[in-house]
């Protein structure tokens, strides 16, 4: 009967792992299980533990890779956000400068219009003066 209990316990340990036994009473340390089992069951247990360990290592590796990608993505997105903010400030400065230039150009345009009107009046007056001079010289 004791041999059957040990065999049942070994099969439980090989499927769950040494600390994952369904009942706290049936939990035994890896050393206890390895010391009491037959070489065949020890080999199966070792393979099972090795398989579980490999699976857990692979899972952890995958999780670390996913976490690294997420951190890099977050780092890159904050970097892009900072770059976009800098570009926006530069664009805002360019827009303000353009607005100032347009205001100055509007003032210059107004002055040029005044000068054009003054020149047209002077041309008309010079035509009148030329007519008067021609009339006086005759």
From TrEMBL:
InterPro entries: BORCS7. It comes from the Eukaryota. Coiled coil: none annotated. The keyword Hydrolase does not apply. It is found in: Lysosome membrane. It holds the Pfam family BORCS7. The keyword Ligase does not apply. GO terms for cellular component: BORC complex; lysosomal membrane. Transmembrane segments: none annotated. Keywords: Lysosome, Membrane. Belongs to the BORCS7 family. This is BLOC-1-related complex subunit 7. It comes from Balaenoptera acutorostrata (Common minke whale). The gene is BORCS7.
């Amino acid at each position: 009967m004791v041999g059957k209990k040990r065999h049942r316990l070994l099969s439980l340990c090989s499927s769950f792992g040494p600390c994952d036994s369904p009942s706290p009473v049936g939990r035994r340390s890896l050393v206890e299980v390895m010391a009491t089992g037959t070489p065949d069951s020890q080999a199966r247990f070792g393979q099972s533990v090795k398989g579980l360990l490999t699976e857990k290592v692979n899972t952890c590796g995958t999780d670390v890779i996913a976490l690294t990608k997420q951190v890099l993505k977050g780092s890159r997105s904050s970097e892009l956000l900072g770059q976009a903010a800098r570009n926006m400030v530069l664009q805002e400065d360019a827009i303000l400068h353009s607005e100032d230039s347009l205001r100055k150009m509007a003032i210059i345009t107004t002055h040029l219009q005044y000068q054009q009107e003054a020149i047209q009046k002077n041309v008309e007056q010079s035509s009148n003066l030329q007519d008067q001079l021609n009339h006086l010289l005759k």
